[in-house]
Design brief:
single chain, 3 helices, mainly alpha, about 140 residues
Length: about 140
């Protein structure tokens, strides 16, 4: 739980991850009832719980698993950010298209209104044509 909360908060310091791994190993040893822990310090167990040489593999496997979990968390965070950006972009595009449609409708209404209300000048009201200048 500590490791996950550290990784979720963006932690990636190898020294702290190593300490968390050591704590996890100690907790696992305590849960299994493996002797060899004395006042928080590791001591060589009297009877090895596993064949010799496998503890290093377990530590390496745990380290790889921790790195995989960290990468999965990072990948999930990137996916969430990408979805949020895509949603924001599509929302903005939708807003722009709605505004454009509204403006186009208003322009159409104004054209109709202008065509209907435009005064029709009668020929009798028109001023006389201007004559060409005399030579």
């Amino acid at each position: 739980a500590l490791r996950l909360s550290y990784l979720r908060a963006g932690g990636h310091d190898p020294a702290i991850l190593d300490q968390l791994l050591q704590l996890q190993l100690e907790a696992t040893a305590l849960e299994k009832g493996t002797p060899g822990l004395y006042r928080g310090r590791r001591m060589a167990p009297a009877v090895p719980a596993e064949p010799p040489g496998t503890q290093g593999l377990d530590v390496a496997l745990l380290a790889v698993e921790m790195e995989n979990w960290r990468l999965e968390e990072e990948l999930l965070a990137l996916k969430v950010r990408r979805e949020r950006r895509a949603n924001a972009g599509s929302w903005a595009a939708q807003q722009h298209s709605e505004e454009l449609a509204q403006l186009q409708a208003e322009v159409g209404m104004l054209r109709c209104h202008t065509e209907r209300t435009e005064p029709q000048l009668q020929p009798s009201i028109l001023p006389p044509p201007v004559a060409a200048p005399l030579p």
